Records
---
Amino acid sequence: MNRQVQLKSRPSGIPQAENFQVVEAPMPEPGDGQVLVRNIYLSVEPAMRGWVGAVANYSEPVPIGGVMRSFAVGRVLASKHPDYAAGEYVTGLFGWQDHAVVDAATIQRKVPADGAPISTALGVLGINGLTAYFALLDIGQPKPGETVVVSTAAGAVGSSVGQIANIHGCRTVGITGGPDKVKLCRDAFGYEVAIDYRTADLDAQLAAACPKGIDIYYDNTGGAISDAVLKQLAVGARVVICGTASVSSWDPVPLGPRVERYILVKRARMQGFLIFDHVARYPEALKQLGEWIASGQLCYLEDVLEGLDQAPDSIAGLYRGDNLGKRLIRIAKDDGSAL
Amino acid sequence: MNRQVQLKSRPSGIPQAENFQVVEAPMPEPGDGQVLVRNIYLSVEPAMRGWVGAVANYSEPVPIGGVMRSFAVGRVLASKHPDYAAGEYVTGLFGWQDHAVVDAATIQRKVPADGAPISTALGVLGINGLTAYFALLDIGQPKPGETVVVSTAAGAVGSSVGQIANIHGCRTVGITGGPDKVKLCRDAFGYEVAIDYRTADLDAQLAAACPKGIDIYYDNTGGAISDAVLKQLAVGARVVICGTASVSSWDPVPLGPRVERYILVKRARMQGFLIFDHVARYPEALKQLGEWIASGQLCYLEDVLEGLDQAPDSIAGLYRGDNLGKRLIRIAKDDGSAL
């Protein structure tokens, strides 16, 4: 049998455990051009909120009763496609389930068995690292000496953003929640200043950390954190809109201070980013990210839950801030055998 | 004597007549390197609100008791600078007054006596036309077939934006206030659709006018009009933040629907524009704008008040929407002699 996590009901706002159900389905068999994958690690992303929302955004909503969409890394058990062979590791949108039969075209890439741990294919060498890389460099356009502020600074995306900004000679200021993450930001991810938004007078601490204003704001939260940051933009600032983790519901659209005047007076640029627009350039970014990991310039942290039963509550936990690092669900040993 | 309009008190929000006073000052005399100008036309801009606000934005606030800052076009009466001679027409920030003594370096440019009417140096061949040109082309980056929505579509900036977008092969949709301006948008400024925001179901009319979404939003108003437009952005949309005419006060910052999600889902770009960042490129733009005027592709309309006594209420009138076209105050005949 194949255990799956299905979407049971459509959440309003952040998906909760009760919106999912764990079921047993028949073991799938690959047809021509298809591959059977034994999933090993499943990914948990803030973006999953959008994937299950009733309103189509950049992808179709996961249907009720459908397997939850997710990235996974796993091992090929059987292949009916000439490009893939049993034993190889692959990553792609394989879903929250033990086994997936997928068309070869939907496999994102092979994951080398002798490189970084295969779990990194879902984080720093997956869409999180790729997002940080392209969004910071393309939209943020960091220059040496500039001040870069990152929200969810210790998160899977934010931690890479801060380090890549440091590599480019910027000063980095991280905004995060709680003392453990503040410490992580400074000790592991190289932020010059880390601010705990839960306890801080954010306006005052940002002003102290950014005396010349904020040149780049890499925004993963939206909401009150952004309201504070936008007040302190420098002339010509770039604001990367990557996520809205702090806003619990967009239906109806919540109110906040109008941004037009900040944008106008500072001649700032605010731009949204979606990693799926950049697929063609993944190889160049993965090569660079891999080199930075190998040289010790790019660290990552993983928050690994054990077993498929952890999946239903895992997104809500992410929004509660339970995790330290990239949240994954481990459902098999790295060789694909049962836990 | 030299009649001047001084800032009497600092307005909160939109400057009203009572915030100004008309006074008589001694006739100024030019020193070395200076020029005495007889102002002929004075300009009235929405941006003047910011120039008299207590909060410094991109320029220092006009001091209480100071002559109101404004662009003007006038004629040189006396020159103690070798580059300027009596009888020449010039434009620059000469202020709301009959006569100005200015350092030659503050003169923006000479205005040819045999070209377009000298009043155009304050509008379509002044900062309004230049703003439309650079902001639409640099930030908006219009491409043939794209849908461009303009707020204050019949105004001094908006009317040029719509026509320049048409010249670049776009479909243009204007948002304006009242039936006279709706008619102007269609008949004079070439908008394919013009919408009266005062009477329309803006959401429905925008949806009907922009069935493929909005590729470029040239925003002169902010506020509720922008709230409606942002809901209908196309993927990859560009939003030019040029002004916030619909927002009566920014102290405190008013609330509106949060924009992050629209920006993110549509991978849109929102960017602020200030003409004074582009001074070095004025000549190229003035040449192009002049050619479009000469060929009849770029029309303009002027709303001319007569006499300096009209100045104090003129900004408030602009925000009330009293004007049809670029608002000017004529204080002398075109040859510089008294009215």
---
Amino acid sequence: MLTLHDFLPSGNGYKVRLLLHQLGIPFRLVEHDILRGATRTPEFLALNPNGKVPLLQLQDGTSLAESGAILCYLALDSALWPAERLERALTLQWLFFEQSRHEPYVAVARFIERMAPDSPQRAELAHLRDRGHAALAVMERHLAGRPFFVGGRYGIADIALYAYTHVADEGGYDLSPYPNIRGWLARVAAQPGHVPIDWKPG
Amino acid sequence: MLTLHDFLPSGNGYKVRLLLHQLGIPFRLVEHDILRGATRTPEFLALNPNGKVPLLQLQDGTSLAESGAILCYLALDSALWPAERLERALTLQWLFFEQSRHEPYVAVARFIERMAPDSPQRAELAHLRDRGHAALAVMERHLAGRPFFVGGRYGIADIALYAYTHVADEGGYDLSPYPNIRGWLARVAAQPGHVPIDWKPG
């Protein structure tokens, strides 16, 4: 059985839990409290030298890190990974966009507001929100006339971008100026097998 | 013919130029001076709403952004993209690691030092270098006993990580404490068809 090392409030971890649930893949969840340094112990660093969740351990013990790589690995051969070469590349484009232009601003603002309210990083919130709104504007424009991010079908690009966008309000982002994003969030939440961010296998 | 929109000092663009050259794929290069806002014009934003280079335009005019996605698209069916599922996932893991844990620190420090010496961002350099050295330490540890990042063979994970690591000194990083990285840099530079960062088709 697969083992997922994760922290339930993590949007990066949620991407993987949501996909595993939608694909019907059973897994064992090991929770780590990142706020108490649980991913900085020698034991965890031996699994992932980068000290981050989510981390997927395969049946043979091999570790796979980085949510985008885990999504691609798991979705292969499913309808959530496109069959066509260009659509695969565009899916990857949105996964990289999420990690480089969206998560560092939308997710980090939420982390500060929700989990580190006394952090000196609060001084960066205005800057983070400017950059986060720039990413949201790119998404809003792309979603004009498109139901999902790639190929007109729900897939892992949607899962990757949904994870932190649907809780952007927790980081102080007001999504009311983004009607296309709000419509898309509702379509993603209506997919079969959808589960909330704090879901874990029962 | 493919068209690559790029800025020669960009390591992200260099990844794509190096791969295109090593694969023997002809392309047309369109240079944009990002320091003068050339990727923020309405014309460029129509190609890439995210306003970034590199941007690959396919023969039918389709735009593909994000260097990691472009590398995967181009390397498919070549020896620089592994044939095996887990090695593909590990390649993606390193591509995402580079974009989220390496480039924001190693590349940005170089950008400040080389292209924006009077920027108020200089105040962040010490913090950037701490995070950049953490990424370099992860690479150094992984390369112990390994000639390349994935599967014992040169591939796009090496190209992605080489681009900003080999010019890390321009951002004030001293690589002398990283002998495994220095050996790997030399192996990458010795690959057939290797070209320097400012290379462009003649």
